[in-house]
Design brief:
By secondary structure, the protein is an all-beta fold. The chain is globular, with a radius of gyration of 13 Å.
């Protein structure tokens, strides 16, 4: 098990939005998808676009630079399955959100 890092309280990330955090030099976006929380690498592997600025449709985020899409639950692209982003385990304790890195 990696280390758990406290991110914020659940009510600080509204449904359909995210919170960007820097943990040990990794930019991680924690997304709220219908009150389920998912943490992913916030850097698009295509050209380094800021995924946290992308639009979320159900559980798929689209990069604002070139439209690459990734499922925030699995990290896999629904369009090009070979393209993936790193995902991180999220743990909820009471109202607090933690990410394991």
């Amino acid at each position: 098990m990696g280390k758990l890092v406290k991110i914020c309280k659940r009510n600080e990330i509204s449904t359909g939005s995210n919170k960007l955090v820097n943990i040990d030099g990794k930019m991680i976006a924690v997304w709220n998808v219908n009150n389920e929380f998912y943490a992913v690498n916030a850097v698009c592997p295509h050209r380094g676009g800021p995924l946290e600025q992308g639009s979320l449709n159900q559980n798929v985020v689209s990069c604002p630079w070139h439209g690459w899409q990734f499922d925030v639950e699995t990290g896999t692209s629904p369009v090009f399955p070979q393209a993936k982003i790193e995902i991180f385990k999220v743990k909820i304790e009471g109202e607090e959100i933690f990410v394991e890195v």
